Amino acid sequence: ITERQAAANLIADVLNVEKRLAVCAPVKMPPQVYDALVSFSFNVGTGAACRSTLVSFIKRQQWPQACDQLTRWVYVNGEINKGLENRRARERAYCLRGIQ
């Protein structure tokens, strides 16, 4: 696979995530909240994201509570994963910047 094809695949995958989120979370949200949601959903899958408490808070426009949900998603096989902890902390911080 070429670098160009990898980039095209990534863009297509992100657009697919955005399309699915538009269905399950059809709410206007601050740009940073949206970006954090897309990053999270790309990582965990839109099925899990759309069923999450995070999305239920987004639908009610409860931005701080939605952002705080990100840090719950840090487990792999029942154990905390440091890489996911770091990723979710960054997503949460970015998410919260959008509502301050």
The value of Rg in angstroms is 14 Å
The end-to-end span amounts to: 42 Å
Main pleated-sheet profile: 2 strands, antiparallel
CATH A-level architecture: Orthogonal Bundle
The residue ranges in which pLDDT falls below 50 over 5 or more consecutive positions are: none
Count of DSSP helices?
A: 6
Summarize the structure.
The chain has 100 residues and is mainly alpha-helical. It has helices at residues 3-24, 31-44, 46-50, 53-59, 63-69, 82-97; strands spanning 75-76, 79-80.
Can you tell me about this structure?
The protein has helices at residues 3-24, 31-44, 46-50, 53-59, 63-69, 82-97, and strands at residues 75-76, 79-80. It starts with a helix and ends with a helix. It is mainly alpha-helical and 100 residues long. Helix 2 runs antiparallel to helix 6 (82-97), helix 4 packs antiparallel against helix 5 (63-69) and helix 5 (63-69) runs antiparallel to helix 6 (82-97). It has six helices and two strands. Strand 1 (75-76) and strand 2 form a beta hairpin. The chain has a two-stranded antiparallel ribbon with strand order 1-2. The model has no long low-confidence stretch (mean pLDDT 97). The chain has one domain: Lysozyme (Orthogonal Bundle). 21% of the residues are buried.
